[in-house]
Amino acid sequence: MSEKPSGRNLEIAWPDLGITVTAELDGRNTELADALWDSLPYQSLQGHALVAGEHLYHAAPIPSLLHLTPDMRIPDRRDAPNGTVFCSGLQHLGIKYGTLTEPMPAAPVGRIRQEDMPGLLEAGQAIWDSVYSTKKPILAEVRKAGTEGGHRIPELAAANADAKSLIHDVHTATERVWLAGPQELIDLHEGVIPSGAGSFETVLPTLLFVNGETRPLGYASYGGLVRAAVQDMPMDSLRHMTRLLVGVPAEFLGYCGLEQLWSFTQRFLACLDQLDREDFLSVVGQLALYINCLGGWNLHLYPWETGADLRQLRPDAPVLQS
């Protein structure tokens, strides 16, 4: 589908930076764009790509992003114009603001207007500094242009009593940590680890393993379960895959300090056999949002500057002789 004006403009603001940019939803991927539009306004911790280049993204409180199928994809997002806005199956709103190195297909929904590109570039550098070095959180506010901001986390519905109770508690926990760092992760990054996880009292390896387990648990395991449920995988298979995918990493993360996540997981597994497809989808959707929130905060808190002296060797760079 070609780009065409939709008459729907949204503002992406970073109040701490005093920067606001306007994006027009341009008619591409209408289901994704509608889901984004209907979710507004919301706020989120702003993140920056750590391996892909000049790209901003944040977790969007939109459960349907996990399973909506794009009408069209850009085969390689490196080729997208700077300022392109994407919705991602990883539950992200992303903005390309410069050079990308990671080749991957992506689903565009709009563009930042040209006159706002200098502000976007300024925001990109400040957000990189926030994630990589200063650790001062920067919040993004996404709203319909010309309207006031706000924030809400959806609470999904379930008929089963255990599922409904679990969803409510996960929703409450998500609201508590969405815009403020989760205390369990803050403690972990400060070296407070009640279980003693970290051989010989080290902390960095534990942080690395927590990051390495949290991201795929949200993106792949729970995101995959949502998509499988929507695509009518038989319930017996869904239950079997759930037990294969979520228990072991959640137990390990609980050992490392994310005890609430492990508690939620145990409650989910305990009621799993009672859930029909709709209740299953609600539970995994609510948990996916919570875990993706934890993942975003872990990426923000991680001490990336620990590796500041490690730099890539370019093929054309001179080899220094000792």
Could you walk me through the main structural features you see in this protein, from its secondary elements to its overall organization?
The chain is built from nine helices and nine strands. With 322 residues, the chain is of the alpha+beta class. It folds into two domains: 137 residues, Cyclophilin (Beta Barrel), CATH 2.40.100.20; 146 residues, no CATH class. Strands 3-9-1-2-8-6-7-5-4 form a nine-stranded antiparallel beta sheet. The chain is globular, with a radius of gyration of 20 Å. The termini are far apart.
Give me a quick take on this structure.
With 322 residues, this protein is α+β, with helices and mostly antiparallel strands.
Strands, helices and their partners?
Layout lengths: L7 E7 L4 E7 L4 H10 L2 E4 L1 E2 L4 E7 L24 E5 L3 E9 L6 E6 L4 H18 L4 E6 L16 H18 L4 H7 L14 H27 L4 H11 L1 H10 L2 H13 L5 H25 L21
Antiparallel strand pairs: 1-2, 1-9, 2-8, 3-9, 4-5, 5-7, 6-7, 6-8
Helix pairs in contact: 3-8, 3-9, 5-6, 5-7, 5-9, 7-8
Ends distance: 56 Å
- Beta fraction: 15-25%
Poorly predicted runs are: none
Structural Rg: 20 Å
How many strands, what sense, and barrel or not for the largest sheet? 9 strands, antiparallel
Total strands: 9
- Write the H/E string, N to C: EEHEEEEEEHEHHHHHHH
Structural class: alpha+beta
Oligomer: single chain
The level of helicity is 40-55%
Compute the number of helices: 9
Give descriptors for this structure:
Cucumopine synthase C-terminal helical bundle domain-containing protein, alpha+beta, 9 strands, 322 residues, Cucumopine_C, 2 domains, 9 helices, Cyclophilin, 9-stranded antiparallel beta sheet, 43% helix
